[in-house]
Amino acid sequence: MKVICKGRRLLPALFLFAMTQSGFAQRLPSGVIPESYDLTLAPNLELATFTGEETIHVRLDKSADRIVLNSAEIDFHQVTIVAAHNSQTAHVSLNAELEQVTLSIDRPVPAGPAEIHIQYSGVLNDKLRGFYLSQTARRRYAVTQFEATDARRAFPSFDEPAYKAIFRLTLILDKGDTAISAGQIVSDTPGPSEGKHTVKFSPSPKMSTYLMSMIVGDFDCRQGGVDGIPIRVCAVPEKSNLTSYALVSAENLLKYFNSYFYTKYPFEKLDIIAFPDFSAGAMENTAAITYRETLLLVDEKTASLDLRATVPLILAHEIAHQWFGDLVTMKWWDDLWLNEGFATWMSWKPVEAWKPEWHAELGEIQETNTALITDAISSIRPIRAKAETPAEIETLFDGIAYGKAASVLRMVEAYLGPDTFRKGVNQYLRKHAYGNATAENFWNELAAVSGKPADQIMSTFIDQPGAPLVSVKVTCRGDTSVVALSQQRYFDDSSRLRETSPELWQIPLSLEASGSKIASVLLTKRNQTIEVPRCLSSIFANAGGAGYYRAQYDPETGSKLIAQLDGQLSNAERIRFLGDAWALVHVGHLNVAGYLESVRQLRKERRRQVVDAMLVNLQEIHDRVVAAEDRKALEEWVRSLLRPIANDLAATPGESDERQALRSDVALALISVARDPELIHESMTLAQSYMSDPSSVTSNVAARALWMAAQNGDAALFDKYVEHLKTARTPAEYTAYLGSLPLFSDPALLGRTFDFFLSPAVRVQDLTRLNAVLFNDATQKAAWEMYKARFPEIQKKAGASLGSGLVAVAGIFCDPQLRDDSQQFFASQKIPGTERDLKNALDQVNACIQLRSLQQQNLSVYLAKPFEQR
C-alpha cells in the first residue's frame, strides 16, 4: 500500500529469452518458472553495501540456452547454471534500461528442473527503494521496500507478481543486530567472522518477490498475539515506548479478520515494524508489515482522535492485504485494485466493530465522495488500466486503485447483501490461495454465489473511466408516481458534460422516499422508467449512500430534499447529498446559492462527519470562487453559520473524543475560512503555550494553532519551529512543526523554507510537504518561481521513489497563466510515466477556473442578502 493516505505507494521475473518474446514492453519472456530462492545476504551498514549469494530453483518448459531475469544496480561476480547434473558458467549481459540481465550458456539445458547460482554485490542506497539505508541520529539500519519493481535491486529475480516462489533467507549481521523477514528465526549462530552472526529464517510461504522483506538493526519489539498468532510491533529503541497502541489495535483487528474470513490468518506470525525513512505510508510485506513512524507510533496521552483512528485504519488495510494481495495476488499490475481496492474496502469493517463510537461507517461514505471527485476529470483512467514499464506501473498507485475500487466494492456488497458478498469473497480466496487471480476470477465468484449479475455490474465500473450521473424526475399521475431515470458520464467539465459520452453502466439503484426504501432498480439503459403505486412527496436516489454515482433531481424534488435534510435523510445520505450538490455546482447545474442553503439547512447538525461534509467546500469557495470584494461578506456568512455551532460545543467535563474533535474542526474553519479574529488571537496564544509545554495543549489543537501562527509569523517564530521540530518527542509533534514551515506568508521566508526542506535535516519521505508553499495565494506566484528554479535540487532529493509524483503540483493552481506555465514546465522535464498525471493536473486546474466563472456572480448576488434572509 502507498498511503494517501494511504498509502498512496513491483516484482522480479526470470524467463527464457530463446522462447517467443511476449508483446509486452518490459515483461520477461515466458518459459522459466521459479519455485524457490535460497538467499544469503550480508549488509555492511558502515560502507552502505551488501554482498549476496543466491540459488534460484526453476523449472524450464523447453530446452534453452539463455535465461532472462530482472536485475538493477547489481554487480555480478559469478553465475552458474546447473541442470541434469551438468554445471555451466553463464555469460552475463546487462540491459540497464530494461532492468534485465541475460544469462547465456554454451550448451542448452533441457526442459525440467534447473538451478541458477549467482554471487553478486550491491549498494544500500539512500533512495528509499530496494535494499536501502535508514538513519537515526544514533545509527544506520538496512531496510527494504520492494513494491512495485525494486526487489531486483536486492537480488536478481523473477520480479513479476505471477512468479510466486518460496524464499529461504539467511542474513549475516553485525553482532548486536537482529533481523525481521517473512519467516521466523530458526537459528542464530556466531560467525562466519569475528563480530558477525548468521541468522536463518524458516521458509516463507509461496509469494511474489515484491512481498519479500529484510529489516536489519537493533529493533525493540513489543509482543502480543491473538488466536495463537504471535504479533510484534517493533521500532527503533528510542521510540519503542510508542508501540503499545498499535499492538492493541493489531490484536483487535486480526481477531475480527479471523472471524470474517473462512481461512484463518495464513502465516505463522505477524510483525509490524516502523522505521525512520520510508517512501510509502505502509507496506504489506508477507508477515512483516513495514511502516512510516508517523502512522504507527502514538503517544496515547497526547494523540488526537484522528491519529488514534488513523493508526488502526491503516493497520487494518495492511493486515487485510495478508489475504488480499499476499495470500491471493493479482496476475499483473493492471489488476492492482484486487490488492488495494479490496484492502481499502475491508479496512473499515474491523474498525467499525472495535470502535463503534467513531462512526467509521460514515468515513466510508466520505471515502466514496472523495473517489467520485477524483473520478470526475475527463483524463482519468479506468480502474483496470494498461501498464508495462516500472514508471507506468507506479502511476497505478492512486485514488482510483484505492478509493474508487473500494467504493465500487461497497456498492456491490450493498446490492448483493453483506452475507452473500462475504461468501463470494471467501470462495474467491479459497480457490486462489497462494496463487494469482484476475478481476474476472473475483466477480465470477460473486455472480455464482448470488445468482445476480455482479460480474456485469463490476465490469462496467472496472473497465470504464469515470462515474455515472443519474438524473431523477418524478411525476405524479393520480395515485401513481412515474420515476424517470437516466444515466450519463459525469464530468466536472461543463462542456464535456453537455456532449454525448459512450460510457454506459449497470447501476444498482436503491430509491427511498420519506425515510423508507421504495424500490431497487438495476439501471442498465440510458433511460428507464419505473412506477411507484403512490404519489411521492420526494425521492432520494441513493438510499444508504453506498451507490457509486452522482445523483441530480428535477427542481421540485431537489427543493423538497433540501427542506428534508435535517429530518428524513440519514447521516450517510446527508453526506452524499451535499457531495452530489457540490458536483452539480461545479458544472453550473446548481446555483452555489442552493448549495449554501443546503449547508445552512444543516446548521443544527452535530454529528462530526456530517458537519465536516458541510465544511469541506467552504475553503474552496473562500479561496477560489468568491470575488475579492465579496470575501468579507463570505467570511461574515461563515461566522454566522459556525459561531452558534462553536458555542454549542464549548468544552464540558467528561466530553467525548468526537465532541472535542468536532470543536477543533469548527474552530479551524472559523480561522481559515471565516478569519475569526478572536480565534486567530487564541491560536497565537495556544501556539506559544504549546512551544513552552507540549502537554498543555491537545495535539489536534496544537497543530491548528501552529499552522495559524505560521501564517502570521516572522523569522523569529520560524527559527523556533525549526528548533522545536529537532527536539520533538513524538512523530506527531515533529510533523506539526514541519508541516507549518511552508505556511509562513512572509515572502522573505520562502527561500529559507526551500533551504530547510532541501537540507539533510528533512528526510526524503517528508519532501512533498514542501508543496504547501503553493497553496498560499499571497505567495503562490513567488513560490512557484522558486519551485521551478530549485526543481533540479527537488528532483535529485526526491529520486525515483517520489519523483514521479512531483507533477501533481501542476494541479494545485486555479489561474490560466500558472496553469499554462506549470504544464509547459513539467512537460519539458520529461519525467517517465507522468504523461497521464500531467493531463489529470490540467483537468483539475481547468475545473477550478470553470467553477469560478460559473458561480462567482451567483455568489455575489447571494451574499448581498442578510444571513437569515438568504
Task: Offer a few descriptive terms.
870 residues; alpha+beta; eight-stranded mixed beta sheet; five-stranded mixed beta sheet; 26 helices; 29 strands; 39% helix; 22% strand; globular; disordered N terminus
Explain what you see.
- The protein is an alpha+beta fold and 870 residues long.
- The chain is 39% helix and 22% strand.
- It is built from 26 helices and 29 strands.
- The strands form 8 sheets. The chain has an 8-stranded mixed beta sheet with strand order 6-5-9-3-2-12-15-14, with no helix packed on it. A 5-stranded mixed beta sheet has the order 17-18-19-21-20, covered by helices on one side. A 4-stranded antiparallel beta sheet has the order 1-4-8-7, with no helix packed on it.
- Strand 14 and strand 15 (196-201) form a beta hairpin.
- Helix 12 (571-586) packs parallel to helix 14 and helix 16 runs antiparallel to helix 17.
- It starts with 13 loop residues before the first strand and ends in a 7-residue tail after the last helix.
